[in-house]
Write a structure and sequence with these properties.
Structural class: mainly alpha
Low-confidence stretches: none
Strand content: under 5%
Number of strands: 0
Oligomer: single chain
Largest sheet: none
Helix content: 55-70%
Number of helices: 5
Shape: elongated
Mean pLDDT: 89
Order of helices and strands: HHHHH
Distance between the termini: 35 Å
Length: about 90
């Protein structure tokens, strides 16, 4: 049973219904994919290697990218790496 069907609070019903009515969007691209597209070949290869290297922490990837003008959060790096692991 959904929260709206459960007779929850009116605000919850309104929020739930609004979220449910919104149209589905096409899949959003990962921020890191946009960064990779903007890089030259050498930097792209370097970042790709760093992303698959489990010895390099998410925070280090984020810090270095931000220092080089590519704005990205630690969570965005973590999410992208998680997706890479799932794809195998």
């Amino acid at each position: 049973m959904t929260p709206a069907e459960d007779g929850g609070c009116p605000l919850m019903n309104d929020l739930y219904e609004e979220m449910k009515r919104r149209p589905k969007r096409k899949n959003q691209r990962f921020r890191i994919e946009m960064i990779l597209d903007a890089m030259d070949q050498e930097d792209r290869e370097s970042l790709s290697a760093a992303l698959i290297d489990e010895d390099i922490q998410h925070v280090r990837v984020s810090e270095v990218l931000n220092e080089h003008g590519y704005e990205i959060s630690v969570n965005a790096v973590r999410n992208y790496r998680s997706m890479l692991r799932q794809r195998g």
